[in-house]
Structure prediction request, 388 residues.
Amino acid sequence: MNKDNIFYDPTLKKRHFKSKLFKYFTIASLVVSLLFLGVFLLDMVIKGSSAIKQTYIQIEVSYNQESIDSYRNAVDKRYLNLLSRAALREIPDQIQANPSLMDTKAVIWMLADDQVDMYAKEYYYKISEKDLETLKELEQNARVKQKFNTIFFTQGDSKTPEYSGILSAFIGTIMTLTVTMVVAFPIGVATAVYLEEFSKQNWWSEFLEININNLAAIPSILFGLLGLAVYINLLGLPRSSALVGGLTLALMTLPIIVVSSRAALRSVPASIRQAGYALGLTKVQVVKDHVLPLAFPGIMTGNIIGLAHAMGETAPLIIVGMIAFIPDSPTSVMEAATVMPAQLFTWAGMPERAYIERTAAGILVLLSVLISLNSLAVYLRKKFEVKW
Prediction:
C-alpha cells in the first residue's frame, strides 16, 4: 500500500508480528504444559505399574501348638527372613479359626518380604548373602513367583510395606466426601439462590458477597484450624473421624459452590422470570419451577468440581488428625478414618523402597477418581442441557 494513502498504518506490520509472536508463545506454553503432564503421568505409570504384582514364596507350613505359641516355629528357619511378618502372624489365627488344621502340614504360597519383592522386581534391595543364596535356590526350584496384588485393593494401611493397601483410605474418602456434600450442597445452593434471587442490593448483601469471594481465596490449611477449634475443641466431636473431616471440607467447599451456583443462576435469561411473573406466578414459584431447573446443569457441574477439589485436599485434614495410622476400614462417620491424599502423604515419607510404588499406584487411583468425577460433571451438564 502506498505510504501516501491516508489509510496506511505504519505500525500494521509490527502489530502483525506481535500477534504472531503471541500466538507462538501460547502454543509453546501449551506444548510445555502437556509435556510436563505427560512426563508426570509416565513417571507415575512406570513406578506404580510394579505395584500391581506382589511376590510370593512356596513354603511348607506346620500347623501345631508350637506354631500357636510363636509363628516363628511354623516354617523352616531358613525362610523366616524371606517371608512377610504380617503373613506369618496370621498362622496362629488360622489354626484357632480352623481347629482341623492342628497337627497338619501344608505347602502354600506365602507373601514374601518387601525386600524380596524388590529383588524380584529388580529394584534396590537389602538382603543378606545367606538369605540371598536361599532365595536363589527357591527361584531355581520355581518356588518364587509374582501374583496379582489383591492386597493393595483389599487391605488397609500396614507397618509392613508388602501388606499395605488403600481400601481403608478409599472408604474413608467416600465417607468424608459424603458428609461434605450432604452439608455443603443444600447450604451452598440455598445461599446462592438467596443472594441472586431474593436479597436486595444493600450493604448486607455486598458484605456477604465480599466475604464469600474472600473465603474462596483463603489457604485451605486455615479451614483445618477452624475445624480443629470448632468441631473438636468446642463441640467435642471425635478427632480423625470422617464427620469432622467432612464438615471441615464443607467449610472449604461452600464458597466454591456458592460462586458457581450464582453464576449458573445468573446465566438463566431474564425473559424466563418475566414470563413467569406475567402469568401471575410468585417469585418462589418462578425460582423453584423454572429458574432452578434451567440452572441445574451449571449447579451440578460446580458442585462436582468442588467435590473433586475437596477430594484432593490434604492440609486441612492433617490438622484435624486424619493422617493417623488406620489399618481397618471405618464402619461409621464417627470412627477414626483417613483419606487417600493423606495416605499417600504418609507413604511418601516412608523410608522403604516398596512404599514408592504404592504411592505412585495410589496417585493413579486418585487421578482416576478425579477424572471420573470431572467426566461425570461434563456428562450431567450435556444431558440436562439437551433435556431443557
Q: What stands out?
A: The radius of gyration is 29 Å. The beta strands are 53-63, 104-111, 144-148. The longest strand covers residues 53-63.
